[in-house]
Amino acid sequence: MLMIDYDREFLRELDKHRSKTIYARIISLTLDETPIQAIEGRVTQGSINLDGDSAVRRSCSLSMVAKDVDIKDYYWGLNTKFKLEIGLKNTIDNRYPSIIWFPQGIYLITSFSTALAVNSYTINIQGKDKMSMLNGEIG
């Protein structure tokens, strides 16, 4: 994956921009964290919770709408790890990509569901950070 070094002023303007379109990229991973399948879409609802006092430091809940997806429920049902990236639509500077992606970490799937509409998928996914494997919450 290509890493781009963004200047601070651009990121500040991107953050201040009033009209934000938020995207998510979820990447199904094998147990050794090799990517299998990626799904991108516009976020309709979601949160990432951080709790430094808990054994499970991070959790996420995300709903997104994706188009042109050949989703393989098989991958998402058997592989419990996924990588999450959140993206902001770039309408500020055309020197940079149209979506600026920010990595949010690797999670274990606690819930995954899809619904097929006429021309899009609605995907709901929930996850907890990898600490869940150590404290026995997820085996």
Keywords for this structure?
single chain; 139 residues; mainly beta; six-stranded antiparallel barrel; 14% helix
Characterize this entry briefly.
With 139 residues, the protein is mainly beta. It has helices at 8-16, 73-78, 131-134, and strands at 22-29, 35-50, 58-66, 81-89, 99-116, 121-129.
Write the layout of secondary structure elements.
Elements: H1 8-16, E1 22-29, E2 35-50, E3 58-66, H2 73-78, E4 81-89, E5 99-116, E6 121-129, H3 131-134
Antiparallel strand pairs: 1-2, 1-4, 2-3, 3-6, 4-5, 5-6
Can you walk me through this structure?
This protein is mainly β. Helix content is 14%, strand content 50%. It has helices spanning 8-16, 73-78, 131-134; strands at residues 22-29, 35-50, 58-66, 81-89, 99-116, 121-129. It has a 6-stranded antiparallel beta barrel with strand order 1-2-3-6-5-4. β5 (99-116) and β6 (121-129) form a beta hairpin. The mean pLDDT is 83.
